[in-house]
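Shape matters. Shown next:

___
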Amino acid sequence: MKRLFIICALISLPALRMMAEVDPNFYIYICFGQSNMEGNAQPETIDKTGIDNRFRLLATCNFSNPSRTKGNWYKATPPLVSPNGGLGPTDYFGRMMCESLPDSIRIGVIPVAMGGSPIQMFDKDLYQQQLQAHPGDWWATLAKNHYGGNPYGRIIEMAKKAQTVGVIKGILLHQGCSNCGDPNWPGMVKKIYNDMLTDLNLGADSVPLFVGEVEYAGAGTNAESGGCASHNTQVARIPSVIPTGHVVSAKDCPGNNADPWHFSAYGYRKLGARYAGEALYTLEQHLPYFSFHNYMFTLNKHCTFDDASRTLTAKTTGVGSAYWEYPHLADWSAFKYLVIKLKEPADPAAEVWIYKKNSIGCREIFNDRETIVIDIHHAKYSATELDPSLISKMLFRCPKGTKIVFDDIFLSNDEQYNPNPTAINGVETDDNAFRAPLYSLDGRLAEPRKLKAGIYINKGRKILVR
């Protein structure tokens, strides 16, 4: 019995060692679909630079240029999916995740996609009949050349490898043009999603599905842009068919102006960032992003934004405005102050507007300042108070012909930013609201509920009561 015990213990050591190497802060996402997920835009200089080393790619096929070997991890530089792919939403999904999460968190992606592929090619029970029925189709050739003819099998193979080093946190899908308008499509997606969860021993509650909309009609100058826009009706059904399914909006994501189906590089940046926004929300870490990228700002027609210099410029034709929008509402309530730092004073009439849900809750005029601080728990617009737990939008306005040059924007609890350090804001009814003892300037103990106008001392601080 002793020998048997020793042998069993030795057999279990590699498994124990493997478990010890799993990094709970390595968040991994499966990304699959057809050509938009594969990436159809030519990467630009901005897309190849500034990539955080925390953003990692697990190669799911062999690449010649750049040189990559299936099953190895690499810095996530485009193309991510295959040698013949380009820039896609996965690129900026990973970038925004790294930008929004703590430095201790790494992001990994497992991408498998073929242009033109029907959703059935990812069904482990249907892919073979699809290949037999369409052996010469472009997507069938890609499936054979890159994934051994079994894209679903490659996803599971690579995902199991990834589970030895990190934790799968979600699944991204962008597909639909090859199944445009099919009312059975949401059900087919559900089966594939459930099969993945089962084969990888994952739970739906901890591994949500994120499904991107296809190009909207009118998203490009091509006369047929948004050729599959009607499929968004089926995408919208995903949350009702899959309780842990989330829709990623493609509204205002521009097309490539060359065909009816694909986004431009700018459109992919915007769409990828929206995938990240949905994923952050499910992680319960939906912090407000203050991301100085033009694809994160929604700009009106009267302004431009330059990423490199962080400059918002209003044209001479009207007031320029740009805003960050938080679809699931951002919660700022753990912080006291919103701090906006500029590289140079803006036009005195420049403004920031903060919205709670869809009503304005705060308006601050810059007044030629380089640092603007808003006490978010006591801010209001007219009679409407700002609710810092329900922030829907932050908008900047500058008069025509002027500019705002940003340095940094952040939330803080540091009292050095207190815009009114000697004042008591609002009326408190709690007996302990002022954290007694509270003393008048002549040293007498004061009763918090019976304070008269004047200056008081509380724990070494001067407090002005008006």
